[in-house]
Amino acid sequence: MNLALVGYGRMGKTVERVAQEGGHRIAAIYTDVEPVRADRVPADVEVFIDFSLPEAVPATVREVARSGRPIVVGTTGWYEKLPEIREIVQEAGIGLLYSPNFALGVHLFFRLVEWAARLYSRLGIYDCCIQEIHHAGKADSPSGTALRLAEIVRSHWGGKSELLFDRPSGRIASHQLHVTSARCGFFPGEHSLVIDSPEDTIELRHRTRSREVFARGALRAAEWIRDRKGVFTAEDMLTDLLGQS
Ligand SMILES: NC(=O)c1ccc[n+]([C@@H]2O[C@H](COP(=O)([O-])OP(=O)(O)OC[C@H]3O[C@@H](n4cnc5c(N)ncnc54)[C@H](OP(=O)(O)O)[C@@H]3O)[C@@H](O)[C@H]2O)c1
Fold first, then answer.
1. Catalytic residue at 134?
2. Ligand 1 touching residue 8 (CB < 6 A)
3. CATH code for the structural domain at 2-102+211-242
């Protein structure tokens, strides 16, 4: 594939290396100094891959839509803009695939978490919380993946109806789901669902060991979105690849 990268930081550079190792070509690189402009996109660009900053995403998608190419958005922290982005994508008739986490294994982890939340909450003796840890340079907190996990648990754990991201001011209420974020060192990303009773603890954890896993997932997503129109998530792609709903 001929790719255009939007953002050339930690992830942009990793995508570039993994893409080139896989025989793909980087036809353009866009940065904050030289953002995407529809009229300057090289003719051979087939798909855009964005790992930039959340505030840059709406303008990028607008220009990419004007250029008529599909885009994979790995940047996190912009999801409150999703309705606006959806409109831009639908009007332009392009494809957009976004995910807070392109480690494809994490999407199977989401399914395990959903199943665990349904099972353990039914017994009435377990409580749960979500923990995440990322490198000190991560811009957004909680991570997009932690937000997604929190929504899954809230939807499937009977009795958990409120998400609590901040430090509790006293005792936590049983209907609150506590989500904690730590920032330290170089962790590419780790997310856990901790389930606890007076006598036992169950931990489901997804640990990313390197950024390459996100790059490989984003490249897979670029291939998948190339001939599709509309807004999709990595979960849609995985459902399609696994052939099940
Ligand atoms: N979905 C996933 O699987 C996944 C995995 C890892 C990370 N992420 C997310 O990906 C994003 C990037 O992460 P990162 O670690 O690569 O961050 P990073 O190292 O800070 O890189 C972001 C880059 O985007 C550039 N940028 C800023 N505005 C831009 C614009 N308008 N157009 C193009 N580029 C622009 C920044 O330039 P300056 O530094 O000059 O501002 C910076 O080089 C974050 O939102 C992170 O949470 C997602």
1. yes
2. yes
3. 3.40.50.720
